[in-house]
Every structure is written in structure tokens, then in C-alpha cells.
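Below sits my pick:
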Amino acid sequence: MLFLQGCKDTHYGANCSQRCSDNCLGHICNNDTGYCTNGCKIGFYGNMCNGRCTTCPAACNRSSGICLGDCPEGQYGDACDRTCNQGCKNGCMKDTGICKACNNGMYGDVCTDECSRCQAQCDKNTGECIGDCPVGWFGVFCNKECSQRCADRCSKDNGICNSCVVKNFGINCDKNCSDGCATDCDRNNGSCSCSPNWQGETCSEVKKRSASQTEFPVTEVGAGVGAFLIIVIVVIIAVVVLIRTRKSKESKYASSVLFHKSATDLDENKGYTNLGGITVAIEDPDEEPQIEKPEECVYYNNLSVAKDIPVSDLLNIITTKQAKENEGFQKEFKSLPYGERFPCEVAKSAGNIPKNRFKTTFPYDHSRVVLESSKEFNSDYINANYIENMDGKREFIASQGPRVNTVVDHWRMIWQEHVNYIVMLTNLIEGPKVKCHQYWPEAGKEMDVDPFSLTLLEEKVYAYFVVRKMAVRKKKVTGSRTVVQFHYTHWPDHGTPDPLNLVDFLRQFRHKIKPSHHPILVHCSAGIGRTGTFIALDVLSRYGKVKGKINIIEYVKAMRKDRMTMIQNVDQYVFLYHALYEFFRRSGQFVRKEDFLSEFANLNKAETKKQLSDEFNELTSLKPKYEAKDYKSGKKHQKLNASKSVLPVEKYLVYLTSHIAGRDTYYNAINVSSFAQAEELISAQFPVAGAAIDLVRLLIDEDCSFLVSLNPMSEVKEDDILGVEILECMSWSSSQTVPADKSILINFIKQFCLDRRSHPDGRVAVLSKDGAVGCGVFCAVYNAVQQIQQDAEVDMFTIVRQLQVRRPEMISTVEEYELCYDAVHQFLASDSVYANT
């Protein structure tokens, strides 16, 4: 009889010739596979216990090798084989590498960002300074300079001086005490003890004048003719005399596009220059190229593929993901592959490191733009990558903003790749930091970037962007090429722009460019954050418009395959969702002026009335739904509002800054952008009884050069008085939603446009009974006229929508919406200079 017997516990295999691993507990394993039956000895893992836990401080999981317990201080990762960033204090989180705390002077998840001029520490998450700022600085980041007229410190919150230097007063110590003061004057109102021959509260009057002759300064605001009347209402302020000292100053509404000064304007040994009182670092080609560090994050390995999102479900998905302080967005963003994932060896070579703006942002070797070498240029390197669209076509080039030493390479790339269109998403200087070197010529000057010469053919300035058309010539090459740059100028230094404004910029960009087989160049400063956000918005919006669905997370992954860290932080990622939602909600259409004349010649036609009614209803459905907290100031000052139903949205409220005893900083007025200038307009109500002085403060504080009154000022019952010249529409009663004679509006706007052309500086205050009725129509038609004069087309739907974002009560009836179209049609039909473009 034959007895069959298996292997001993310590052996395995067909003939039991294989010995179990010495690392198996008890040397026991499965007779067939050799897998350790009772697990592994400490320090080993795997089926056969042949893996060694070399980096674990203690034991590791005997199946996966993942370290059990915490990693040694300074290490993280499943195998504790990754090193925490040097900025971390007390180590970092084992799973994520996020620092537990930061060393002094550093902040961010991995403590790579440097705090600003904080006197002590800064917040680990935001970088905001904790405690007071050093003497002479203010702001949450302590990066804004106090007025030089502050005697010592200024308020960290708003920059208001704690005390003034001798002979100065005012909220910012920017006013001079009167020459008649015998002593230093009062910090708040300028009052003082008078020298001989001077009198008055501020000693600004010579004694030969009587007190009754004290003059209130007159503010010129502009005047119209014809159907509007210039009236002067003299109002006597009984208690407070507000003295206005106008000084020549740079308007705070000047272009946000800042330019480098030439080297000859700099002190020989200084790396700084002064622009508008702000000290700004100037790039030096010999200094370290790492001016700032882009945010870093942790790579989470996630091989799963996310599902497509129907564009109709986008709002519900946003609502879900932003619950619990954006918990869903945070989790999704952290699942993205982050940082350097592929080789970047060319970028790290010694000769190319000075060409990189940041020390950790490099182009991948496999997707980088390789410049053609020649006798003149032996380097093929530029910090730029090709980016694919949804179809896998290399539709974009994502690039860092040019440095002083890379401007030539920038134009070599543009010429080589036949780039027709550039999208620029940063200003040259933001805060104290140089973001990009100017690589285009100024008007009337040719720019030589050997071997290229550049000429600015045209520059159009809009509220939130600038379009520049340039001719580019290359030496020894016949002819020239046209390159058009679309420069978005209102992306804030910290945070993200208004979604609707960036969507409108994208629509304008796509509307103005022609189809091209050549790549579109997109850059910001590092070429990853804003650049990635814009490219994703462009690609996904076009794809979703055709397919009805999008996949945001998968496209961001695809971009990061081509260039590291595209969409740099979670705020930009959340912003992308909101911008896509705004894009898919509803967009207007650009109507050429010739088509506008024919299509809207008769607003009484049934089909035209239905079209405008449908558009108006659509606009009503798109109005933002603000919460009570968004009207905090208006609710707090109900007695100062002409209407309880028209309150200013906190985000757009104009605060009064001049100091008057007994008066607050509130006035029912909001900032409004025109088509060509950000926040050129102020939409405000008439002052309630006893508050005329606040209107004067508004005009002075905001440096207004025009006051446009859409209703007769005689209807305003005031006990207080003010002297001011007013451009006044006498035929539009405040009891009427639209004027009885609709032609008055376009005549009024025509005259205003002429006056404004003669006096383009300063802001425009537009007043009506409640700051909404009348103001909305005026602003909409004025913006439409500007669009016609600039682009020979108009998009009334978008114009009105942007106004209603800031004050939802504007154009709240279909009659007002029809009046906008009617007035624009009259403008185009009139035989005058106004319609010339």
C-alpha cells in the first residue's frame, strides 16, 4: 500500500525541494506557493516576506509594506521615505506631507511661501500677518506703505495714520494746516489757534473778511445744454464747513498696466524704483532668478477616472462640493497629481536655470517648446510647454512671463510657432513684485528685439482688458506678421477675478480671433496658475457647448501631464467651476451696428417685442440672489436710504473716507464700470433730508468731475445746502420709470459724451431718486455707445447683466429694457459725429 504525504511545514514545491523563507514566522509557508502562512518577521513584508521595511522606524504592514505608526520627524509617505519641506516645524503629516507648523517667516501647506514684512509671525494658511505691522507698513500682509506724513504707525486695517507729522491733518494726514495757524492744527478737522490777521476755525481767512463771507468751494462737475438746464443750488452748511483742498494726484482709476522705468531712471546701486509711491523690485538679470515661489502641494496617486458632468447639473454639483467650507473641492483638488512628475533635465541645466522665473517651475522635457538653434542662438530652451485640447491637438503654448534675459527667446518662440494670438493674464507689476517684463512696444515707438523689430499698430483699452495689435518683422525676412495680444488686467494679486468678467473676456477673445492652425500662447507670471485656469475654461466651455457635458478633473489631469501644476491652488480650481457655470447659463450676442439698425428699427413689431421680452425674462432669472449679509451696511443705515428696497451690495459699495464730525462713512452708492474703464461710474441715490453733505463728500472723496442728475434736482427737498454745477435732465420726472419723451435720453447722453471727451479725467456720479431707476438705463446706454464707438457692435444683454450683478434693481421693467434698445437705435440713426467709430 502507498501512502501520500505532503511537504513539511518548512518546505514547499512539487517535490518539496524549496525551503520556506527565513523571514517567515516559524519558517512555515504554504506547501504549494511558498507564501508565508503566519506572516512575516518584524522588518519584512510581502507574500514571501522578501520585502524589507528599510525606512520604517518600527514595523510595517506585512502585506503592503506601509509603515505602521508615525514616521521619524522630518519624513513622510507610506514608506516614510519622503522628506518634509525644510520650512516645516516639528515635522509634517505622514499621509500628505503638509507641515504641522511652519518655521518663522514661512507659510503655506508645505511652508514654502515667505511671509511679507510681518513684525512677528504670519498665519500658516493665508500668510496674513499676526499682530501689528512694522512701523511704516499696513495691510493684512503688511506690504502696503503708510503715508510719509504719518508721524509713526498707521492702522493695520486701513492705513489711517495714528498721528500726523507737524503741520498736517486729515484721515491720511494728506492735508496741510493753514498758513494762518499759530500752532499745530487739529488732526481731524484742521482747526487751530490763529496768528495775527487770520481768523476762522482753520485760520484760513484774513481778518478783513467777515464770518458771513466764508465761501464754500464750488465743485465743477460739467454742464449740458438744450433740453437740460444748468442750475446752481447754493446750500448753507450750518454746523460744519467742509473745505476741499484739491491736489494734483495720480488717479486711482489709472490703467492697471504698469511699465518698467528705464535703467537710467534708477539710482546706480539700487534695485528698486518708485511707481506712484509704491516701492517695486526691479528685475536684474544678474540677480537670483527665483523672485517668488509658486505654491506646492502633495501628489496623491489616483488612477480612477472621474465621470463626465452634464452642464445642466453644474450648479447642483457646485452646491454639493462647496458644503462644509469647500470640503468636496478640497478633496477633489488634493486627488490631482501635483508637482514635478516627469523629467525636466533641460530646464535644470546650469545654462538654463537663470532663464527660469521660479526655482521649482520647469517645463517637462517631453512637451517643452524646443527653439530652433542657429549661429546667433545656440540655446534651444524656453520655459514653455505645448498643451493639448480635448481632441489631443496641441492648441496652446503655456509659458512663463518673459524675464529681462528671455525676451528675445519669447519672440523667437512666437515667430517659430507662427503664433497669431497671445493671452496675457498678469500685469507687469502687482503689489511689490515684478510679474513680467514688458515685451511689446509703446505707441509711436519701434521696439528692437534683435533680430526682430516690433511696431504697435493699434491699442484698444476696455474696462478689464487691453487688446494690442503688433507688426513683427525679422531681419533678412521679407514682409511682416501680425500678432494680437489680449491682456486681462484685472486678475487680483491675491485671489481670483469676477467669474462673469473673465467669461466676458473669453467671449470677446473668441469673438475677435480668426480660426488658426497655429498654437495660442497663454502666459501669466509662472505660466501655471492663471494660465491653467484660462486654458481649462476655454477648452471645457467650447467642449461643453457642443457635447453638453464636461469632465473638469480629467482635463486638469491632462494639462498637468503637459506642464506641471496647471491650476495652482484650490481657489483657482473652485473659480473654474463657477466660471464654467456662468458661461453655460446664458450669453448675449454681438450685433453689428448695421444689423442693429435694421433689426430694431421698429420695437413695436410683435416678433421684436417678444425677443426683448424673452431676453428681459432671461436676465431676471440670472440676477444674483444676495443674502442679508450682502446688504449689511445698507440695513444698518436705513434712515439714509431713499428706498428700503434698493440697498447697495456690500462688495460694490462706495465708502466715504473724508472725516466730518457726526457723519458716518455710508452713502447709498455703488461702483459701476463703463465699457472702456473699470469703475468709471458711481450709481447713487439723491441724498435724503439732512444728508446733502454726504453727497459732497462722495464727490470729493472719489474725485468726481461730473455729476449727472437724471431727475430734476428741484424735486429734492433739502434743508442743507451745497454749491455745485449739475448736468441735469429736466424732462425725466422721478415718478416716471422711463421719460415721457424718450429722445431726451439719447440727447442727454450725446451731450454728456461730448463733455466727457473734453474732460476725461475723474469719475462720474450718476444720480436718481433711488440710485437704480434711471441710473441703470443711463449706464447701459452709455456703455453700449462706448462699445459701438470702439468695436462697431453692441451686446446689450451682457451690458445689462453686468449692471444687474452690481445693483439687481437696475432695469427692473421690460419698458426700461426696451428704452435701452430704442435709445441706442436713435444714436446709430442720427446723422452726427457720435456714431463715427
